[in-house]
Amino acid sequence: MGQGFIRSDPPDDSYSEAVTVAFEPDIIRQDILIEIHLRTHASTSAHKMRGKYRSAIYVHSDTQVAEVCNTLAALRPEFKLPVVTRVLPFRGFRESDQRFQRYFEKQADGPFCTRYIDPKLDHLRKNYAKFLNPA
Fold first, then answer.
1. Is 45 found in the same domain as 6?
2. The pTM is what?
């Protein structure tokens, strides 16, 4: 897993904050990861900062495009507002500066973490406990 900045094809070729996730489909399926992604960030907000904070799932193959699009289509009815998350081709990634890596571990009591990260972790623990590593 990497924390940093990701880009796609124009007009989405500027770097946007992101994480990359490697997963084992026998342990956690891609559709579950997509659902978690949609439910733990502003996937229905078309706010003005979408250039820097795109709501997207970046794919590496045509097969993945179809799988992700099917999952998004199945999940969209569960949301009151339209989902703005897009499917984009992965074109590049660069890691964040070291000072921002593992930010939550370093700043767990800081205002950003307590206001934004803690509620997301609470949501994960409540709704996706069976997929979480107890360590």
1. yes
2. 0.86
